[in-house]
Amino acid sequence: MVGVPAKGPQTLAEKVWDAHVVRSAEGEPDLLYIDLHLVHEVTSPQAFDGLRLAGRSVRRPDLTIATEDHNTPTDNLLTIADPVSRTQIETLRKNCADFGIRLHSLGDAQQGVVHVLGPQVGLTQPGMTIVCGDSHTSTHGAFGAIAFGIGTSEVEHVLATQTLPQSRPKTMAVNVVGELGPGVTAKDLILALITQVGTGAGRGHIVEYRGEAIRKLSMEGRMTVSNMSIEWGARAGMVAPDETTFAYLAGRDYAPKGEAWDEAVAYWRTLATDEGATFDTEVTLDASAVTPFVTWGTNPGQGAPLSAVVPDPQSFGSEAERNAAERALEYMALTPGTPLREVPIDVVFVGSCTNGRLEDLRAAASVLQGRKVAEGVRMMVVPGSAAVRAAAEAEGLHEVFNAAGAEWRFAGCSMCLGMNPDTLKPGQRSASTSNRNFEGRQGKGGRTHLVSPPVAAATAVMGRLAAPADLS
Amino acid sequence: MEKFTVHTGTAVPLRRSNVDTDQIIPAVYLKRVTRSGFEDGLFRSWRDADPGFVLNDARYSGASILVAGPEFGTGSSREHAVWALRDWGFAAVLAPRFGDIFRGNALKEGLLPVELELTAIEQLWAAVEADPATAITVDLTSREVRAAGLTWTFPIDDFSRWRLLEGLDDIGLTLRHDVAIGEFEATRPAFTPVVR
User: Fold this and answer.
1) In chain A, which end has fewer C-beta atoms inside a 10 angstrom radius, N or C?
2) Which residue in A98, A82, A124 sits closest to A44, CA to CA?
3) Using the 8-state DSSP alphabet, how is residue B196 labeled?
4) What is the mean pLDDT of residues A404-417?
5) Å from A419 to nearest chain B CA?
């Protein structure tokens, strides 16, 4: 994708990119138009301040939408106990009021994790460019959009100009061959991929996930895969739009209606990578070989099948990997050779922009149905948005969670990151459906194992890492 | 943004790979609404947990260059990671590879991300550990790093280099193309959503 745009067959990423280039000049990054800017309380206050200092306005408040998610409590909708968190939320409210931006506040029917909001209201559509001051913006690529995370300086830039100067990334195909086996999820697939290729493999690339196993995933599953693109360094992840995409979008609030729908779908159908188009890099993953997968270390590339044992650091090829594994095992308090199924868990977290959608909650509930969370284990179930919570309750999922002894909570980022009251205590070990197992990510001194929703639920029942197949 | 041309200083050897932005600054420090004063959060967990951590080592106090392992600045997009490094007093970070978002954020703030081969990083670690007073020069004009009698060149695209040398503000640069942005907007498909 570097240099002059190809005249011949093009990839999905190239088509969407080229459709958004405002200005292109030799030796400069392309100036890219941004169709949708998602805003939350953490990475925006300094950007709005920058606008004020420069006397600038928001160019397109109608292409900007905000929600509160990182700092919000999930045990109630009224009180933000931490005054610093409260100030950050109140600052967002004032900024949105001052600059005319639609905000879904705590208590609003659409409030929730910013990457759950966009798709659920139908704002996330194929062929768009979408940014947010959050690295998991890659989630929206599941619809065939170019979606990527940006820093606060770039947030200010988009607010002021609705554009971003961006160098053309390289393109990569992840060809997922074969089919996922029964009980194996999109989360297992992406965790296995990251362990296979390493945390830096996607750097500088927009990745397209392709192949039969991807085509068979629901939109929720595709979002889980795209969401974790950043965890192996990719600038963005994409899936070509198809009938699954259109069926998901049809009828949602912001989806086109009537003739506009037909026109949109006709355009979206042209976006798929052309026969004969080439990628700068290609990677192949065999979906049929993937089994329930968990992480044992402190970056998302340090993972293994649940059936494996904690690895010996000496088994890694490079000195850097050996050192990293040694450090990780020390932090995680794990001994090489221990079967992963024997690792005891204190806290189970189901939620986040990775696995906090209705399908994820259904998967966890189906495992918990008629079972109990093991004694001494705390299980938190946090819907990705207020709308997901309402939909789950309409199906009675909350009754399954409550009956099992899990906590059924309000929407937010919750225990995915240590910014709100939901945190691990030092030394506590979690099985978490979130996206990062970094040191202290879920609370200072906390130890995180990344898992899928079914593995999370089975783990809660067993009190140690487990898959649904382990339950009697 | 302040200009970056040539910087000479001493360095901190951070012998770790995959230093994610959660380590550079933990999430609890992200609740602030200000843009400066983040030095207290820099590597806070590691500084608290380990008295031997390099940033706790008095021999490296006053250093302005961080020399780190591969995949520095992965993970969260938090620009606070750049602000914390800058507020601590760092002017440049040298590593074999950076997370894309971190690198972009650093370039916006005038904290120079310098990509060097791992062998060069290892030579720098050895030199700095042997003598913490080792001066390292990061020269953006010549795209060179010089230390201990050795010179390495580093890649940086012309546009980013020019912006840093001139200390230019991106928004100001983009607003020169305001007419082109308006013309592009007029061609966007009618079915593209707008927020109500």
Assistant:
1) C
2) A98
3) -
4) 98
5) 5
From the list A138, A129, A207, the residue with the least C-alpha distance to A171 is A207
Residue A314, CB half-sphere, CA atoms under 13 Å: how many? Answer: 3
Residues in Cβ contact with A192 at an 8 Å cutoff, skipping those fewer than 6 apart? A285, A290, A293, A303, A305
Q: How many CB pairs under 8 A join A and B?
A: 202
Give the closest residue to A132 by CA, choosing from A227, A19, A12. Answer: A227
- Other beta carbons within 10 angstroms of residue A376's beta carbon come to 9
Q: Which residue has tokens 């995915």?
A: A416
Specify the DSSP class assigned to residue A157: H
Q: Using CA atoms, how far apart are residues A224 and A190, in angstroms rounded to an integer?
A: 8
Residues 6 or more apart in contact with residue A221 via CB below 8 angstroms: A185, A186, A359
Quick check: A156 and A53 in contact, CB under 8 A? Answer: no
- The reply to whether residue B177 touches residue A320, judged by beta carbons under 8 angstroms, is no
How far apart, in whole angstroms, are the C-alpha atoms of residue B177 and residue A406? 54
The whole-model pTM stands at: 0.97
pLDDT digits (tens, 9 = 90+) for A89-128: 999 999 999 999 999 999 999 999 999 999 999 999 999 9
Q: Which two tokens stand for residue A454?
A: 């079914």
